[in-house]
Amino acid sequence: MNLIYGLISASELKLFNEFKLIFPEYINTINTNIQAEPPCGYRNHVCLMQHNLMATLFQLYENKCQLTDVRAALQLLQQWTDRAPDKTIFDEVNLKLIRLAELILNDSKNPYFTIKFSLPFSLPLPNGTYEVRAIRNIESIAIEHLISQGDTSRIGDRHFCRVTVRMTGFTSTDNYWHGPDIDSVDQEPRNSRLALHVVNQIILRVKLLDESMRMVLASIQDIGTVTTVQHNGEGEIFHSAIAMTFGGHALVNVLTKQELNEENLKKLEYSLNNLTPCLHDELYSRALIERGNMNLISAFYLLNSANEAMIEHFIFSFAETNGKIDLYNEFMEGASECQQCDLFKAQPVVPIPRRAMPPSPFSMLKFLKTLNLASPNEVRDLLSALSKVRSDKWRNDLIHGRTSHVPRKVVDDAIKGFQELKKFFDSKAQISE
């Protein structure tokens, strides 16, 4: 009975992954006496078969199971429904659930769900639906702009927007649902997190395309009423949620509406469908947003993180492209001073000892000369740009707790230094291509 209680609890909370961990042991117990009525009764047992199919559908689009698992779950549901004394009590769920599964298995028509909500600012894109293929399971985002006569958006104008994110897969439409695992309860509601991830990916990419735009990243507290609707592969509604509200809309000064120009809009659409941003690009975009909102310490830390990520990314890429990956690995691992010792040479140790610390960003830029990718003058300029980004006096004072602020000029100089480094790396990357 403990298995039954565990499954019922997992099904009520839509803990799909937890349900699938327990279910095999339960069904094996049932299969030992397949002709007998299940210990929880036919009605509860068929309900568990329904939840098993739902959990399997969820896991299918999380790459945790295969179509054969969906087929097996569907067969279990049909088999036990047929054996129930009163089959009609399951029709309301079964008809929709079985049709949804059969559309996947027989017609390759995937289910999808939509998440609709409002933002306390307007995304800088024209009204319309935009395909998104570079983010897993995301199909599109639709944007509808609104103008308020009284409220002010978080970026300073009177423009807001409604957003609809469409995703391939199967979900719980309960907007208080935190996720498929028992550990999910400490997280924000899952569907809202997924949708906000798409919104913030757009914001980050927009900021990279036009650094002058005033942008803020959306959080769970920003979104208004949330509505989640699950559809089958034919677009028919399987289930929908009662709308709920997470947060309000902040008020600031009134300015004009922002919008990407046509050229950058095309770049954004291409990016959303073809590119996964590098870590350094995302960190840099976040730094620019923090700088725009005068969160200078956050911007400074993010710039330094972006800078080191960018240097390592490009140097590895250049070494790989130019057939010098062995030289790169030797440089990154470093050589221990032990290797210069007469005792070591007489009786070498295996494995060969390596340097304890990885090379610094300054050393990595100097390594460009070894790769024949930069002249001495170029390396000198790169080291100067790196010093602007790091601004070691402020960096050390922050890290060691000697100050609680960073001047705006220090952050602006760091941005200029980052841009100088990026310009060099981008030019070399184009040559390599």
Question: Characteristics of this structure?
Answer:
433 residues; alpha+beta; Four Helix Bundle (Hemerythrin (Met), subunit A); 3 domains; 7 strands; globular
Topology:
Blueprint: H1 2-12, H2 16-31, H3 41-60, H4 67-83, H5 91-107, E1 112-119, E2 128-131, E3 138-147, E4 159-168, H6 190-209, E5 225-231, E6 237-240, E7 244-245, H7 262-274, H8 279-292, H9 296-321, H10 325-333, H11 342-346, H12 361-370, H13 376-390, H14 392-399, H15 408-432
Antiparallel strand pairs: 1-4, 1-5, 2-3, 3-4, 5-6, 5-7
Question: What can be said about this structure in brief?
Answer:
This protein has 15 helices and 7 strands.
What report would you give on this structure?
This protein is an alpha+beta fold. It folds into three domains: 106 residues; 163 residues, no CATH class; 154 residues, Up-down Bundle (Four Helix Bundle (Hemerythrin (Met), subunit A)). The protein contains 15 helices and seven strands. Strands 1, 2, 3, 4, 5, 6 and 7 form a seven-stranded antiparallel sheet that branches. The radius of gyration is 28 Å and the shape is globular. The termini are far apart.
